What we know:
Blueprint: H1 2-9, E1 16-20, E2 25-28, E3 45-47, E4 54-57, E5 61-67, H2 77-94, E6 100-102, E7 105-111, E8 117-128, E9 131-139, E10 159-160, H3 172-186
Parallel strand pairs: 2-3, 8-10
Antiparallel strand pairs: 1-5, 2-4, 5-9, 6-7, 7-8, 8-9
Helix pairs in contact: 2-3
Amino acid sequence: METRVTAIIGGQARELIWLLEHPPLYTAGTSAATEELLHSARFPVYHSGRGGRYTYHGPGQRVVYVMLDVRARGGDVHGFVHALEEWILHALGRLGVAGVRRAGRVGIWIPRHDGREEKIAAIGLRLRRWISFHGMAINVAPDLEHFSGIVPCGLTGWGVTSLAALGCPATLAQLDQALRDSFADVFP
């Protein structure tokens, strides 16, 4: 990813988005607090250099690395994060799931009937000379118990959910297609 970002900056490569799935691991962003890693021996911990705090990545979760020119999209980092959230909302909508944004909580949330809200997608970025890297994680069907080893994104009192937990039978491939189909809705 670092090599690709450097090539984009130098004009030797085009923007790129990677869709991947990681083995079980925790990542620590630049704002991660040590006390938010509750079970340090459970999975490897990777200090990623992206923004944000701790998160889990693993099987059943789509990780989306976005290597895009933020300056070409208005040069507004907050606006870019908002656009990434919008992209996720459009993709989830294509799968029949209605997510929401919440002020002060980056990512996408699912309101539950009992008033709780659970996070289904997280965003953590880094920019180098206006090119983004790292990106988003969307829970399709991961083992949600794996999030219990951290305080996800530093947010206490909120749950984590997935498409599978919501009763949506979508696969990673179906989410990938929804992301592809929705990209131009947000990033013309």
